[in-house]
Design brief:
Elements: H1 14-24, E1 28-29, H2 41-52, H3 65-79, H4 85-88, E2 89-92, H5 95-106, E3 112-117, H6 123-129, E4 133-138, H7 148-154, E5 159-165, H8 177-187, E6 193-197, H9 217-220, E7 223-228, H10 230-233, E8 241-244, H11 247-260, H12 266-275, H13 284-299, E9 305-307, E10 315-319, H14 328-339, E11 341-342, E12 344-345, E13 358-362, H15 367-378
Parallel strand pairs: 1-11, 3-4, 3-5, 5-6, 6-7
Antiparallel strand pairs: 2-8, 7-8, 9-10, 10-13, 12-13
The structure holds pyridoxal-5'-phosphate (PLP).
Length: about 375
Amino acid sequence: MNLPQKHSNTGTSIFAVMSGLASQYNAINLSQGFPDFPIDEQLSGLLGKAAREGHNQYAPMPGLPILRQAIANDFKIRYGVNIDADSEITITPGATYAIYTAFTSILQPDDEVIVLEPAYDSYIPNIETNGAVAVTVSLSAPDFKVDWNKVKAAITTKTKAIIVNTPHNPTGAIWEKSDWDTLASLVRDTEIIIFSDEVYEQLVFDGQKHYSVLEHEELRQRSFVLYSFGKVFNNTGWKMGYCIAPPAFTVAFRRIHQFLVFCVNTPAQFALAHHMGNNNAIPVGQLMQQKRDHFLALLAHTPFTIYGPARGSYFQVAGYDKISNLPDMEFAQWLTKEYGVATIPVSAFYKNKQDDHLIRFCFAKKEETIIEAVARLSTLKPL
Ligand SMILES: Cc1ncc(COP(=O)(O)O)c(C=O)c1O
């Protein structure tokens, strides 16, 4: 049978490839973005409690009201924005799902969506599965800032949307308020919709601030904003997230959501609702900053060139030109097999596999993991 190819990425996701290679070679996995330390005991306790107390059947389609209200309260406290829990928040099984569902709720064949690359690897397949076209605009090293002239040049009459991501995976760059203002000026007289992937919103370092599109009154009216609990409570395997969007956008989102998954894991929703605003753990941004600093201090004794340092997210990009001139995919495989440290080649975040000889490390790991990984990398010799 001839089955249709719904998008252009025919291979397996790089995260599956590198994590698979890491387990095959018993390597330390600094490739995929997930913490390797336990979650807060209060949160795991609340999950068990919810299941024991009988919260085990389907939840309401948009999500449990107590969880949606907890999110609205949290955004009021942290950003000073008013969000209506009933008409603007939908709970989802993770942010990847929320991104796909948001795309599917508005895209039609031949629509164009601007994607800033390097980019999280689900965006382009999700756009193409909807019959739409991804128009890529590259960010350039070393600071990976947006070149707004390039974005302006990419806008056509077919441009339906632009997807942005701050703090940024894989580069750790973050947007300034002026970036949002420039974006607003570019889309003001158009019907272009914004997808804002803010899964790392709480992971910003060195006293900087994350600007959410929700704080930009003008852009907020045309934005789907996507979040992941996994990046806040170190429980990526729960696959829990949410979408915040104006009421009319939320209606469109739920039109798709109700026939994709209908509703999301009930005990996990209870646990998260009771944990939010009532947890005494050290803020995740502070925790990850300590990990970044520790990782970078050790990495300085290796021949890698540090791009950054990361201003947010779980990730640090580094160059390896002083070690090898292999293409980045081959270099990452070689490093996994020969030195027992798995990373992600940055070319995987580009549609055309642009190779600038960069790899991405995930530093969201416990101290022993970071020490052992960098000890292995310290034995690398410059060319
Ligand atoms: C930029 C970005 N968006 C979305 C996601 C997905 O989040 P979730 O695990 O909740 O699907 C990730 C996870 O790595 C990410 O890096």
